[in-house]
Structure formats: C-alpha cells, structure tokens
Amino acid sequence: MRKYETIGLIGLGVMGYGMAVNLLKAGYRLAACDVNQERIRMLPDQERVIALENACDVLKYTDTVITMLPNSPHVLSVLEGENGLLAGEVPDSFFLIDMSSISPDVTREIGKKLEGKGYRFVDGPVSGGQSGAMNGTLTIMAGGSKEDVEEAMPLFEAVGKNIIHCGECGAGQVVKVANQLMSAINLISMSEAFTLGTKAGVKPEIIMNVIKGGSGRCWAVEDRMPHILDGDFGPGFTVDLHTKDVKLAVDMARNMNLPLYAANLAAELFKTAQVKGYGKNDNCAVIRLYEELAGVSVRR
Ligand code: NAD
Asked: What is the domain extent for residue 191?
C-alpha cells in the first residue's frame, strides 16, 4: 500500500473545496490546482497547501491526483491538454482518481490509455451535494480493479462515508448516471405534482408534509421542496450540471440503441430551464417552468 503525504487536487469548486478541507483535516498536504485561484486562497491551513495554476505542476509534488471537474472535456484537458498532467514529467507510480461525474465511455478510454502507460486509474463519482462534501459524508461510487480501489480507499474515507465498489473502470460513472437520471425525473414529477396541487387550492407545505410520509416520497421532496417553499434557488447542484448528467444518460442509451422515454423528456425540460436562464440556479428551479405555465407560485 502506498503511504500518502501530499495529494494533488484539481478543481476546488462547490464539491472540490469541501473535499480539500476534509483531506487537510485527515492530515494530508495538498497540491491544489484550479483556474480560479481564489478557491485555493479560501482554504484553511494554508501552510499545508501548495497553490498551482497548471495541472502539469501538480506531479512535481505528488504521484497521486484527484480531479473534481465539471465534465468530460475538462478532465480530458487537465489530463492531456497543453499544460495537462501528462504534459510534464510523469512519475511511474502516477495514480489518477477522477471523482467528477463524466461520461462512462470517456472514463473507460482514460483507463485504457493510462493502463497502457503503466499508470493506475480509478473513477469515483460522488453523491451527497455540497453538505456531504463539507461534512466528509459523500457516497462514493468506485470503478476500477480491486487493488486500485483498495489503494484509493484511505482518500475516499477522508471525504466520504458510504463507499461502494461498483465494478471495473467506468462502473462508478454508470451508477452515477443512473442516480442522476432518477433524481432529475423525480424533480420533474415533484414539480408537476406540487404545481397541480397548489393550483387546485391546497397549501404546498401541507402537500409536502403528506408526501414525506407517502409513497411519493423522494430526495426531491424531502431535500429540495423546503428550498422551493422559501423561494431559495441558489445552488447547490446547478441546472447546468444536472442537464449535463441527463444528457450523459441520453447519450449512453443512444449508443446502446436503448429507448428511454422519461430520460429524453427530462433532457428537454432541463434544456428549457437553461434556455430560460436558470442554468446557474439550483436544479430545483425546474419547477419554475411549471409555475410559469400554471400561473402559481409553490411557496409558503
Ligand atoms: P464547480 O463548477 O463548482 O467546480 C468546478 C471547479 O473546477 C471550479 O472551481 C473551476 O474553476 C475548476 N476548473 C474548471 N476547469 C478547470 C481546469 N481546466 N483546471 C483547473 N480547474 C478547473 O462544480 P462542482 O459542483 O464542484 O461539481 C464538480 C463535479 O462533481 C461535477 O462533475 C458535478 O456533476 C459533480 N457533482 C456535483 C455535486 C454538487 O452538488 N455540486 C454533487 C455531486 C456531484
């Protein structure tokens, strides 16, 4: 087993920042890289943080790198781009752990490429949102060989609680896409049900309290509806990122010639929310499409 001292972390956004805080809490040093240097300056324990602008510099300080970036092109560019990880001198023991939510196909390509060079790679997308990242309680869906996932385990345990080895390289991303598809469809079903009920004259907080104990209960109602009732659409997990995840599901299905009905509807609805200008809002802002159509506000 390798002994970790300094960990490379690329991408300190909503999720990566909380993960950085918990890696520092666990006693590691960080070689932190983000195009937005302010995210690194915000970290506590600055004496144990090396701030870097280019990914290729991270491997000067460590052989182990976690990426937490928005989508597949960002991960590919950080890996293979002009100033990417592979652009400089790469130690033979290079170990990449990608915790972003990206395409399973791209993940498998990365795995194959790195394996071909003798490097190690694990995918470990997460669920649990900003609070899970800050509290170190993320659910982690790991994909890779048993040995590589075991090797990543001390780092996963520093940032997460529920760590599941889903299968070979890319399996973590497959499970993450499935989860994201369900949560998107649940957000839409919640939006329809609450707009309908509110328009029909029942207070939305009453509908929420009933459904929390009924068969319609889900994360969307339990976690997101209280924010909608307060008119709080600040992210959280943005419409833009959730649109990306639903598109990953639709693309996977298309590649397998698999008809998915609700997924395609969800993709169009989330795209509509983007076109309406809600992209940077929390994903629960999809309800605003229905509120506008119905002429009601689902608020306290
Ligand atoms: P974010 O946009 O807040 O953070 C991304 C960070 O990456 C930003 O700080 C950005 O400056 C940095 N970045 C972008 N390109 C870069 C590059 N080339 N080099 C260095 N840094 C770069 O996104 P997030 O919400 O933290 O999400 C990250 C990933 O985790 C996404 O794939 C998302 O789908 C997934 N995720 C997010 C949540 C959530 O609740 N926000 C929950 C689970 C999973």
From this structure: 174-294
Percentage of the chain beyond pLDDT 70 is 100
Q: Separation of 149 CA from ligand 1 center, angstroms?
A: 22
Measure 13 CA to ligand 1 centroid, in angstroms.
5
* Together in a domain, 183 and 134: no
Q: Is 241 in the pocket of ligand 1 (CB under 6 A)?
A: yes
Backbone angles phi and psi of 256, in degrees to 5: -100, 5
Is residue 176 among the annotated active site residues? yes
Across residues 9-23, what is the average pLDDT? 98
The phi, psi pair for 59, rounded to 5°, reads: -75, -5
The answer to whether the CB of 135 is under 6 A from ligand 1 is no
pTM for this structure? 0.97
User: Averaged over 139-151, what is the pLDDT?
Assistant: 98
Ramachandran assignment for 176, one of left (phi > 0), alpha (psi -120 to 50 degrees), beta (any other): alpha
Average of pLDDT values for 243-266?
98
Q: Please give the distance, rounded to the nearest whole angstrom, from the Cα atom of residue 34 to the centre of ligand 1.
A: 10
**Mean pLDDT (whole number) for 6-30:** 98
Euclidean distance between CA atoms 292 and 212, whole angstroms: 25
1 domain-assigned = no
> Do 209 and 233 form a contact (C-beta atoms < 8 A)?
no
Same structural domain for residues 120 and 195?
Answer: no
Total number of domains in the chain = 2
Is the minimum distance from the CB of 15 to ligand 1 under 6 angstroms? yes
